[in-house]
Amino acid sequence: ESQLREIAAHFGITLDKEQLMSRCPKCNAAAFRLVPKDSVRERVSERIFEIVEEFFECGGCLKVFWMVRKG
User: Which long-range contacts does 60-63 make (Cβ < 8 Å, 24+ apart)?
Assistant: First the structure.
């Protein structure tokens, strides 16, 4: 984290925690929407489907994402 701050300071980049993970890594779209769990059943592994309650879909490429708690 300190390296990221150092790089941002060096290049004059403003970091906003709300914006850090706000774009799709596949298509760079900034539009995610919460989708019904059943709509992703065939698009994620069975284990992920069992343990995750909320799924999000990219509005650009339709890739499915979910949040994971660390710890």
Answer: 60/24, 60/27, 60/28, 60/29, 60/31, 61/24, 61/26, 61/27, 61/29, 63/24, 63/26, 63/27
Has residue 57 been placed in a domain? yes
Q: Which domain holds residue 27?
A: 23-71
Q: Which of 4, 3, 28, 35 is nearest to 17 (CA)?
A: 4
| pTM greater than 0.85 (yes/no) | no
Q: How many domains does the chain have?
A: 1
* 10 located within any domain: no
pLDDT in tens, 16-48: 776 666 789 999 998 999 999 999 999 999 999
The verdict on residue 50 lying in a domain is yes
